[in-house]
Amino acid sequence: MTLAEGAALVGIGILTGIVSGILGLGGGLAMVPAMVLLLGYDQHLAEGTSLLVILPTAAVGAYTHSRHGYVRFRPALALAAGGIAGALAGSAVALALDGPALRFVFVAYLTVTGLWMIVARGRGDRASEGRDPRSDGSAAAR
Fold first, then answer.
1. How many CB atoms lie within 10 A of CB 8?
2. CB 3.0–4.6 Å: which of 46, 70, 111, 141 could bond 35 by disulfide?
3. 131: DSSP letter
4. What is d(CA 61, CA 46) in angstroms, rounded to the nearest whole number?
5. Are the C-beta atoms of 32 and 106 separated by less than 8 Å?
6. Contact criterion met (CB below 8 Å) for 42 and 50
7. CA dist 103 → 19, 87, 95 (Å)
8. How far apart (Å, rounded) are the C-alpha atoms in residues 141 and 72?
9. What are the extents of the domains in the chain?
10. What ranges in the chain are assigned the alpha helix state H?
11. Residue 42's closest CA among 109, 108, 101, 114?
12. How much is the pTM?
């Protein structure tokens, strides 16, 4: 790794950390395109690298949000169990695809998710009305 590439990677990491902290993403949605488009990384390499980077980034973000009461631990454990199974399946699919096909799937996912969020925004955010975001939904938390 050259000094310039190292500096670019640190810069991408800083920007991804900021986006991750603000938007609650794991970072891959910002980091993968940056590594592919700015550094010329192969899609598989960018995704694999991003997955490893997510561990410390997500831990720091979760800790910070938890200090302010914005983490629900029981749902997080259930999501983690499903996420582990899904990551195994998703990684197998990703490795079975060639680079251009994997990039197409990545871009299609971002497009569909973005459009879905725009449409959902038009309907308003009714899911959180009347609930304390720091509550885990149980009677004990109230």
1. 16
2. 46
3. S
4. 21
5. yes
6. no
7. 21, 17, 12
8. 10
9. 3-125
10. 3-23, 28-39, 43-67, 73-96, 99-123
11. 101
12. 0.69
